[in-house]
## 1
Amino acid sequence: MKTPKNVFVCSACGYQTIKWLGRCPDCGAWNTMEETVPEVQAPAARTAVKSGNAPVRLDKYEMPEYMRFATGYRELDRVLGGGLVNGSVVLICGEPGIGKSTLLMQISNSLGKERKVLYVSGEESCGQLKLRAGRLSVSSENLYLLTETNMEAVLAQCDALKPDILIVDSVQTMYSDRFTSVPGSITQVREAALACITKAKNEGISVLLVGHVNKEGGISGPKVLEHMVDAVLYFEGERRQSYRIIRAMKNRFGSTDEIGVFEMTDGGLAEVENPSETLISDRPKNVSGNCAVCVMEGTRPLIAEIQALVTPTSFAVPRRTVGGMDYNRACLVIAVLEKRLGLKFYQNDIYLNVTGGLRLDDPSADLGIALALISGITDKILPDGLVAFGEIGLAGECRAVSHSDQRIKEAARLGFSHIVLPKKNEKKTLTKTGAALCGVSAVYDTLRFLRGKDTADESGN
Ligand code: TYD
Ligand code: MG
């Protein structure tokens, strides 16, 4: 048999070529081509689904029982679609130091109450793990620690111990003797993940894999990892701030809209069950450029605060610094306000931010962004009890959004007195709360909510 030639694989996207290239033609990354030995095994033996299956009629097929078990953290269960499914493989990604190992250690404790958990670490020694466990008050009798980086050894230990849950921290540190490439390379990462997936599917073990992210925020190593696993969760948040948000990017067993909110404390990660309350707890009062918004994160309404700082520019091209929302969306709102209200943003630098490290992708934040910007440039403040939601169109019109009643209830629950919403939503609202509904049909209408600084105290709160 001819010995197969080595191939070059892009470590960022998995693109293959027989020649070395400085730049990957597929993803455009520089210096990512790594020489690897092509796999010599027959591919059929290495797939997660057993081969030789006969076709079955859908109505005759008996569903296997997908059991879900609670991880002990409702915020995480919701993101997973109602708990961890047995036999599923979940990849948890995040920047270094964000709290992946901490979260896994904490859920090992709660899962370990009824099930056997094997925690494999390729990054820390047993001593370090024990130290962290002590700090997190983890004391499960069913939690087994293993420091190992060889995948065959991990699988052998797994066969001997027969755990219900296998945690691999991290998949980038694992390697197999069958391949010559270094740990963390595309072949090794893919093989380690595949070995775990095969184990999960054949034996019904739930596997949690930790994945590192690269500088651009993608999973380092092959992109193929995302296709192979059942769910991909991203752990996000500002390292220096204490809030952590867990978000599903892919989930074969649930929706990808949900988020879970945690706070990093001295005793590990604590669930934040009422994120809105926490996010707006230290809002500054009587300051221009601030506006509360109500957005939907999956099935849950969330109140966040948008801050806009508008200052005269000293640059030829004014600065636009946007955090926590889509840059282009913010530019669109700025352009609409310039055109429809004649506000001179082109003479100003704009710094826009969402407090609490949250990222808003819901277009219903538009109206809040607009209000914060108008308030910022005119230096007139909005009433403290005002919250806004609604989408803005290019003509400056305010468009209706979904889940209006849920948003109104959440805003009223948190004590907001004035809810600015699209006129169409106002007409359809059935909910009766103590808060006043202020329907607007265009951005122009919002100007009536602005008050001068001196009249702030009698501003209708
Ligand atoms: P870690 O879980 O090690 O991060 P990752 O595995 O994602 O790299 O978390 C590390 C950070 O969390 C570290 O900077 C310290 C902080 N931390 C706390 O603030 N409180 C705690 O109880 C623990 C265990 C960690
Ligand atoms: Mg870690």
Note: Residues 94, 96-102, 132, 135-136, 264, 266-268 surround thymidine-5'-diphosphate (ligand 1) (CB under 6 Å).
## 2
Amino acid sequence: MTPDPTDTTATPARAKRRVALGVSGGIAAYKAAEILRGLQRAGCEVRVAMTEHATRMIAPLTFRALSGAHVIVDDYAPDNPDPIAHITFSQTVELFLVAPATANIIAKFANGVADDFLTSTYLASSAPVVVAPAMNTTMWQHPATARNLQRLRDDGVYIIEPDAGEMACGTFGPGRLSEPERIVAAVLQILDKHDGRAHDLAGERFLITAGATREEIDPVRFLSNRSSGRMGFALAEAARSRGAEVALVAGATSADAPAGVRVIRALSADEMQAAVRAKVSEATVFIGAAAVSDYRPAARAAQKLKKSGAALTLVLEPTPDILASVAAARHDGLLVVGFAAESENVVAHAREKLVRKKLDAIVANDITREGAGFDAETNIVTLIARDRDAPLELPLMSKLEAAHRILDEVVRLRRGARAASEAAG
Ligand code: C5P
């Protein structure tokens, strides 16, 4: 589709954000490649610096190939194209991430030691610094490490706590590098925060369903629909960029899930309901954007159904209504938003669903209109909130922009709910 230059609703293309990735010498150094890719997918330009020890774990060439740029280990090296790299490198980035950060690099940062390129960059940088430690549990629990980390926190460094789990050395305990997708999410949130962009969803925890469900008929066939997952993914991306934590339960999708968001896969309506049930108690906002099948085969054939030439009748039974059950069992403070894809009497049908399913808001779209609905990059939606007299009709816009408008409605509802509870006591 050719963009319309008069369309002021289109999301403007953003300049790439510049991130420096420092890799120090832990076994988890190989995971830095995945972090680099995640950051790139989220629209960041990444430059890599490594410690000498890290180059024993993973070759600089890997990062050079992935980032398309020279990887600095030693700024005195003859092949370094920039003689004052520690200054230019550190002064031109918006964020400095060190992942994995060893106990040694943490100790050096905490004490202002600058005996190689990475540590000099730390001292020369005025960008926010994010450190993702990874080390053996005993080293992690050592009082010296705890002391050094506290110093970094006091100096304004963001720490992404390691996970607990099986370590490379075979022991169990805390010290394992946090998951690359979590690190990417944290970096994006910190970039947003330092960008000064609206952070009006900070503190909210979103649970969003997206995509189509698949209901199996036999081992090779299923019932499904044309949902691409794009609308739910756009909501997840928009909520994350506004400071929310986001978990996404995705069925079958044909679009890429946004970076920085936890994705839980659930193919059938039953699996989706189980995934939602497991997560909903942690959520403050639930958005049901998935196209959940309303019916499933009453029985799934264990073997592939044979062609007999005669007519075949498939008996269907209703699936659980995930959205309605979330709304019916909601805990205090949970906002619930649904979608209504309609082909006639759009607003009336959507409003009826809002009331029947006890929702706070519903996003209606007329799937017969060009540029709206399934499998498109754009959408035309009407927002109906329980406290609005008139529906809010929005024009054709990108799914990301539509997502932001839906989230504006969530923010408005949240403020209303807060004001009401303050007035009550
Ligand atoms: O009733 P209808 O299926 O049109 O409602 C659509 C809304 O309900 C969407 O938000 C969809 O995610 C949700 N839904 C659900 N579980 C179902 C069917 C729909 O959560 N079984």
Note: Confidence is low (pLDDT under 50) at residues 1-13.
## 3
Amino acid sequence: MTFAATVLTLYPEMFPGPLGVSLAGRAREQGKWTLDAVQIRDFAIDKHRTVDDTPAGGGAGMVLRVDVLSAAVDHALANNPAAPVIAMTPRGKPLTQERVRELAEGPGVTILCGRFEGFDERIFAGRPVEEVSIGDIVLSGGECAALMLLDACIRLLPGVMGAPSSGSEESFENGLLEYPHYTRPVEWEGRTIPEVLRSGDHAKIAAWRKHQAEVDTRLRRPDLWERHTGARVQSASGARRENKDQGQ
Ligand code: SAM
């Protein structure tokens, strides 16, 4: 199945941009994913091709018009009805690796890119549009966020990454940051690669990596660590409950 990406944007010339090179670029040439960058302005309804207007209630900036946005979304839904529609917005649900994996396993995605002050809120009530944020920062437009989301999906498509395990061992895949990596030279400015990684003992290496992943997650991302340990406590108590229910 080819992953079909549609991007609704005022700047289609920004695509494929960085997705035209390296893994994503090769994968596109091989037909593993397709890209349709659609100009939102083509759905304007007046002779000036207006896409925005002043905010109701006053204030700075301009707001993307709902009649124009809905026409653009309807066009994308008609072409790829099974693909979820995602609007990039700092007001959205923070993007996670779990959501990226779900998207990558599906038929594709339609991404709506905002500009100016963003979208007329009624688009979210009137169309099946999921609001997604790429972090607690404000970009000038949704295009860079869309590129990020697509990059994260494309690398997970079957056959895109060299070794399939390089995807499943990454940070966030099991709720933890990944363990640190080293490569030659063995010694650099007096710093050596940890002995265990040169031991050839695979069990010891796996144990060291697991420990490092846990320590680094706890120190760098207490939020992730809390969720991870909470999930483990929950699943252990869930298992205990299940055993009890089954009289074990
Ligand atoms: N007025 C909006 C607010 O304060 O929530 C910010 C609008 S921003 C200047 C313009 C566009 O950039 C947004 O409509 C959105 O498409 C995109 N954008 C900015 N920050 C983003 C983020 N953290 N995640 C996803 N998209 C973002």
Note: The mean pLDDT is 94.
## 4
Amino acid sequence: MSKPIAGFSKLSKSKKIDWIVNTYFSNANDAKSILKQYWNSNEKLQQLHDEFIENTITNYYLPLGVAPNFLINNKLYTIPMAIEESSVVAAASKAAKFWLDRGGFKTKVISSTKIGQVHFMYSGAFDKLQQFFTKIKPQFFEDTQAITKNMTKRGGGILDIELRDKTNDIPNYYQLHVSFETLNAMGANFINSCLEQFAKTLKEQALNFELFSEEEKNIEVVMSILSNYVPDCLVRAEVSCKVEELAQNHSISGEAFAQKFVQAVNIAEVEPYRAVTHNKGIMNGIDAVVLATGNDFRAVEAGVHAYAAKNGRYSSLSHAKIENGMFSFWIEIPLALGTVGGLTGLHPLVKLALELLHKPSAKELMEIVAVAGLAQNFAAVSSLITTGIQQGHMKMHLMNILNQFEATDNEKKALSEHFKENTVTHSAVTEAINKLRIKS
Ligand code: MEV
């Protein structure tokens, strides 16, 4: 059993590593050399990464891949994706190519409002609180001017502040429910700074409100924080084509494919067990681009899944229909993203990813990310209703299995050739590599 350590964060990086490797590893030198292998030799770059978080001991790599040929609103994109799952980039590229020949993706940002809340306790009559709120509402705007000045100049800022009575849920519980437009910033810092100022104003002004009793003056702020539920920061992406244009490799008619596809999506709409996996496939595309562009994938995940459950039952984020011989497939998804602030101006690969995407505005990035999700979903459902998912998945996973066996370049070449004709399973690869090694 290791002992707790005091003052760990104050130790130097090398002392932290020494403590870690000596406390937890049977071979401290091996552990240390793995950690060091992932350091960047460019000291400035390494320091930048060290300072992103506390207690950095090394860098954690993910591959950054690209999926070309995405036609979005008649503009071509190559989409950067940071992800570990072998088949995701290949599937995105395949879907992009497929829709490139069928008019591409059409997208639209429906709304871009974000929400923050000050949660507080007040014990008194609601009508008095309402009078108080109406009186001090302009003060909220005034007291946050230093924070909102630049954002307002650019056309964003605080849209509205509402007082909400939540006493049906919890006695004495009220909210300031605030809507924001944060333009190209994800806006978390902006929103939270405004909210914390509102909380101060609320408490201070209550002390001077003549209609409040001594008890009522004592408003207790519980917390002030943005919401990652962003149902009004919404984007739509869609593809459509004639049903007969869906025929793939002559293995299935366009009509049969379209019908089976719509059935599969309908199942995800009504069956939560399927919906979660269906949406996970969407998030494969979404998270990969969100991560590559330095955005907060946990915020996006939380908001997206809450939205998927907005009608009281967890359901599919995408929808499909056949109407008048046309197949349409679309997604409507909440995405709070930024292309300025946060990591976007700091992480060299994030800057590169944004330049690759033609330096998008936040709204354009919402559109690109929604497309990545829809494309990924199209690829997954297409495989599921035709060949099954394992064929493509295992083909891409082959390299991982070969790497587990430390296969040489020649072995990889020979076995990739062999598995063009044979089904990839872990045991089939084990057998094939053993055979090859015995032979040579
Ligand atoms: C695997 O990462 C994602 C899929 O399971 C998605 C789906 O089932 O639609 C293939």
Note: Residues 296 and 333 are 16 Å apart (CA to CA).
